[in-house]
Design brief:
The protein is of the alpha/beta class. The protein has helices at 36-48, 56-62, 71-79, 136-145, 157-164, and strands at residues 10-18, 51-55, 87-92, 110-114, 129-132, 150-153, 171-177, 203-210, 214-220. The protein has a single domain (10-220), classed as Dihydrofolate Reductase, subunit A, CATH 3.40.430.10. Bound molecules: NADP nicotinamide-adenine-dinucleotide phosphate.
Amino acid sequence: MPYLTGTRPELRLVLAVSLDGRLAPAEGGAAQLGGAGDRQVLEEALAWADAALVGAETLRRHGGTCLIHRPLLLEARRRQGRSAQPIAIAVSRSGQFAADLPFFRQPLVRWLLQAPPGALGAPPEGFERHLPLQSWCLALGALGSLGQRRLVVLGGAQLAASLAAEDLLDELQLTVCPRLLGGGHGWLSAAARVPPAARAGWRLVEHRALPGDELLLRWRRPEVQGVTS
Ligand SMILES: NC(=O)c1ccc[n+]([C@@H]2O[C@H](COP(=O)([O-])OP(=O)(O)OC[C@H]3O[C@@H](n4cnc5c(N)ncnc54)[C@H](OP(=O)(O)O)[C@@H]3O)[C@@H](O)[C@H]2O)c1
């Protein structure tokens, strides 16, 4: 049973993808797929979230993570007594991040979720908290008990695949961008395994045309008995 009910946070994967489902160009590198429309819905998703999970490689390639800039969203969070930005939770096995990464200068609270064999102890420089990632169920349960109820997952593909493999993504929020990229960087890699329960039955809960011929699509996972959402 892949779920912890009660304390497990809700997970929303948020990505900008090309018309052919790629999240990065064939040659790799830091993808800059979405335009102003995508930026808008990305900030809305961040404003919804308590924390954002981001893969280590995405952080290394982009240097930092996305922030909420829109004053209305910041003001709404302030009125709700929430921090301006969701907590940025870097997901890593190696725990290796260059100390001069701009990420460490962003106005954020940073946590590190690290799979073994990373030795846990005092948080590495730049992180306020160091949590173990022995399994997703345990890690998500721990995040839930630390008050993290809503998580956005900002990619990349490896992180998305590891959550999809355990049927832990509750929502997929994809901004489809008017680009054809080809190549092998699908938002779920060719090696990704999706369990049968998560393969069909996704419900479309939002669709919105965005500026720049982009399209927001948001699906909720197939209902599973015993899962609250
Ligand atoms: N279009 C979009 O919306 C979008 C969004 C995000 C990223 N991207 C693109 O995606 C590419 C990066 O994606 P990626 O798939 O190469 O990398 P990624 O998923 O961002 O990061 C991979 C790394 O994250 C850590 N990691 C992932 N899953 C883990 C798990 N289950 N347990 C422990 N650690 C885990 C490992 O870190 P260590 O290496 O530290 O061990 C792994 O090497 C870039 O081209 C980026 O531009 C696009």
